[in-house]
Write a structure and sequence with these properties.
Keywords: Repeat. By secondary structure, this protein is mainly alpha-helical. It has 48 helices and 2 strands. Among the domains are: about 220 residues, Alpha Horseshoe (Leucine-rich Repeat Variant), CATH 1.25.10; about 120 residues, Leucine-rich Repeat Variant, CATH 1.25.10.10.
Length: about 850
């Protein structure tokens, strides 16, 4: 390369003349001649140096480069593994060394020109990279040359790993300065870095510098939007499994920066970042090669995502639980028993055979050693609870469970800080916090339990870890609503499990909840949560199931329920149902129904104007809204589902109340018949009409003795409930017996000449499943299907649907094979236009 080229390049780059030492034209001419004499073979055989080849004659220039070399070495030796953003005005290098180095920056920038030799460009970029490590002042010296950034980015396309590493490293240094990040993003660096990272075989050092450059760039919120691209994120996630720990840490750092913007959360979740980071967080230090950085970055990303309710569920499903940071002082109130007989975390004591404990704890040791013999009798949830409790109590005893330095701020933000722990330790930590004397800490633990109780496994885990008892104690011993509300939320979410419901009732929570419900001054939010818990515990459907599978409820349990559900409770339930939301109305009706099941004497309930509640529940406005006029179809369907739950509960209660003579005397049967008929003809989902149909039949039986199939009420039940249900069974049931029973029942209805049954059957989509049943080997199914299809074929409007369902080839096979039903099949074929 000639220095005349360098000189021309310097002119293009608008070098400030005051920044370079003057070089005379004689020197340039001399250097040019000497450079041409140097053969390429000799240059390659020389030992590698990041500096240009200098001749002995130009002592002044050689002396300057020597000074620059020494300053590069000093700055390079001070490089650390962490990536630090340089603040404006930072002074890292001394004025003397910086002054000498700055004088020759323009020369190396000029050597980056596209018309220069690739080896010269490589040496120049490596030199500038080392120089940039000196701090912000050195970076400013490079960036003052307009166009240099484009030349640096262009070198990312180089086939040389050294050139790519140096270019990416220099971009990383430039991006560490706030002033230049936007310029780097606009220069096309993001696209070139993505292309470079996409290469199949890329050196680890190049990957590290590229990802670290992205790490610095994503400090800027606007640049995060550009980096949050599916291709880039896919690469970053793949680098989380890289063998090099520095690459993994850098990838985690980029993801942590991206997670700071809520707008990027959706795409982060879509590319699968949660499972990967949760795996890193749960892994042992040995699996992560001792890296605390990657665990920290993974925790930061997941905590940011967990701020969204839906994404928090996804995080917990991967086996990590958000835990409140309460400070080390809060754990000082933890007082473990100096001596206690071994027990399970949920409070169940292990049988004690010795009359007195052994002096040195040998009996406890032998008990622990003997557990393995009966390990099959201890389920996994109990084993995890024991391990988690042991770990957390040990950390609390030695004072290492949490450190004050984890609390980063004071004031309101302090009480909202969270960390993440694997499920086993996280569940045990939350239960431990519940038992502390710190009221605020216990409240935050209850909130975390409420958020983490997302599925049956988590609810059972909290129960086995012993969370139910301290929650009930907090409910009983604290009158502050700020404490009660999180506790009630936790119990509500835990009560979604039938197993946990039984434990909550066993701890005596129902009595406290009922007393709380009786207080009219409590807020509507608390009332709704309390009634939810009571409805889950006192669920009439679960009660009937438990009687069937587990036998009758024991006497003491039944008596306690009767004592709790007194007249005052029913009066309060009716009051809530008449003035509250649909959810409260439904739950109030459910608890009232439970009272009827547990207490056959219904005079108390009947006297409380229960008919008003039933009338309110059966009059749902959503049933009057046409689907095509609804503002949003999804909202309309959701309202329809909620209305179905309320109507089903009210119909079930009304059906049972009709067994009481005194209740029948207090209601207008005609009004309720009209209401229920209207519901039966509505667009309510079919599975909610079971109790509606049963209620209508019972109301009709009480009002008129006629029970023939042509009775208007029975006819509506047949058309709007029975026939659609039978079509559904034929279409979706996997049981041949169920399909056979359904088609036989349909044949019976059609054969008896029920008005409009043919039209209803066709409109409900019954033709296609009937044709499919023709291919069954069950002769009764085939015969019944042929009979129903023959009746359908009597209406020419059904011909197209029968042919489209594929009936013609099936019927021809039956006729040609002379099956027992071939005559009926032939008659059906003659009716069709084929």
């Amino acid at each position: 390369m000639s220095l005349s080229t360098i000189a021309s390049g310097i002119g293009v780059l608008e070098l400030p003349c005051l920044r370079l030492l003057p070089i005379s034209s004689t020197q340039i001419q001399f250097l040019t001649v000497e450079a041409r004499k140097q053969s390429r073979r000799i240059r390659r055989e020389r030992s590698f140096s990041p500096f240009p080849v200098l001749i002995q004659s130009n002592r002044r220039l050689r002396h300057g480069f020597s000074e620059l070399n020494s300053s590069f070495d000093r700055s390079n030796s001070g490089e650390t593994g962490s990536d630090t953003t340089l603040k404006d005005g930072e002074e890292v290098r001394s004025e003397s060394s910086s002054g000498v180095g700055d004088s020759y920056v323009g020369l190396f920038v000029g050597m980056l020109g596209l018309d220069n030799d690739p080896l010269d460009r490589e040496q120049a970029i490596e030199t500038l990279w080392k120089y940039s490590l000196g701090g912000k002042k050195c970076i400013d010296a490079i960036m003052q040359f307009h166009g240099c950034l484009n030349l640096i980015v262009n070198l990312l396309k180089s086939e040389s790993s050294s050139a790519c590493e140096a270019a990416a490293g220099l971009i990383r240094s430039i991006a560490s300065v706030n002033l230049y990040r936007e310029s780097v993003a606009e220069s096309g660096a993001l696209e070139e870095i993505t292309a470079l990272l996409s290469r199949p075989s890329l050196a680890t050092v190049v990957k590290e510098q590229c990802i670290c450059a992205l790490w610095n760039l994503t400090v800027d919120e606007e640049i995060r939007e550009k980096v949050a691209d599916f291709d880039i994120l896919r690469l970053l996630i793949s680098f989380l499994e890289d063998d090099d720990v520095n690459v993994k840490e850098a990838a985690g750092g980029v993801l942590a920066n991206l997670a700071l913007s809520r707008s990027t959360h959706k795409i982060l979740v879509e590319v699968g970042v949660i499972p990967k980071l949760a795996k890193l967080l749960k892994a042992d230090n040995t699996e992560n090669k001792g890296s605390k950085v990657i665990r920290k970055e993974a925790r930061n990303v997941l905590l940011e995502l967990a701020k969204d309710e839906y994404y928090r569920i996804l995080v917990i499903e991967e086996g990590v639980v958000p835990i409140p940071i309460i400070g080390a002082d809060a754990y000082k109130s933890f007082r473990p028993d100096l001596y206690s007989w071994p027990s399970l975390p949920d409070g169940i004591n292990i049988e004690q055979t010795a009359k007195a404990p052994s002096r040195f704890g040998a009996s406890e040791l032998l008990l622990g050693l003997n557990v393995d013999k009966n390990v099959d009798n201890v389920d996994e949830a109990k084993m995890k609870a024991i391990v988690g409790r042991t770990n957390q109590q040990f950390l609390a005893r030695i004072g290492a469970i949490e450190f004050e330095k984890e609390i980063k701020s004071e004031g309101p933000g302090k009480s909202q800080q969270l960390t993440l722990l694997p499920c086993v330790d996280g569940v045990a930590r939350l239960v431990l916090i519940l038992g502390l004397a710190d009221e605020l800490a216990a409240t935050r633990a209850a909130e975390s339990i409420a958020d983490a109780s997302i599925n049956e496994d988590m609810r059972v885990s909290f129960m086995e870890a012993g969370a139910v008892k301290p929650l009930v104690q907090l409910l009983a011993n604290n009158n502050k609503e700020t404490v009660k509300l999180p506790v009630i939320r936790a119990l509500k979410n835990l009560s979604l499990s039938r197993t946990v419901c039984q434990r909550i009732e066993a701890e005596g929570a129902v009595w406290f909840l009922i007393n709380l419900l009786k207080q009219p001054e409590i807020s509507l939010n608390v009332t709704e949560h309390v009634l939810d818990i009571i409805a889950h515990i006192l669920d009439p459907s679960k009660e009937m199931e438990s009687k069937f599978y587990e036998g009758p409820v024991n006497g003491s349990k039944a008596d306690s329920r009767k004592e709790v559900l007194d007249a005052a409770v029913f009066s309060r339930l009716v009051q809530i149902a008449k003035t509250a939301s649909p959810n409260l109305l439904r739950n109030a009706i459910s608890v009232i129904e439970f009272g009827i099941i547990s207490n056959p004497n219904m005079d108390t309930i009947i006297s409380k104007d229960i008919t008003t509640v039933l009338d309110l529940a059966l009059r749902q406005k959503v049933l009057e809204e046409p689907e095509n006029e609804a503002e949003e179809l999804e909202k309309h369907l959701l309202k329809l589902e909620e209305a179905g739950l309320t109507i089903s509960a009210a119909s079930r209660l009304l059906t049972k109340l009709l067994d009481s003579e005194s209740f029948r005397q207090t209601i207008d049967t005609a009004v309720f018949i009209e209401l229920v008929r209207k519901i039966l003809r509505s667009s309510l989902p079919l599975h909610y009409k079971d109790w509606v149909a049963a209620c209508l039949v019972k109301l009709t039986a009480l009002s008129s003795p006629s029970q023939s199939l042509n009775n208007p009420i029975n006819l509506e039940v047949t058309l709007y409930k029975t026939i659609p249900s039978l079509v559904e069974q034929m279409s979706f049931s996997s049981s041949p017996e169920t399909k056979e029973a359904a088609v036989l029942e349909l044949n019976k209805i059609v054969s008896e000449g029920v008005p409009e049954s043919i039209q209803t059957l066709a409109s409900q989509g019954g033709i296609e499943p009937l044709v499919k049943l023709l291919e069954e080997r069950n002769e009764r199914c085939v015969e019944a299907s042929l009979s129903v299809l023959y009746n359908l074929s009597m209406d020419s409007e059904n011909h197209t649907a029968i042919i489209r369902a594929g009936a013609v080839p099936v019927l021809r096979r039956i006729v040609m094979s002379q099956r027992p039903q071939w005559e009926k099949a032939l008659r059906l074929l003659r009716n069709l236009p084929v």
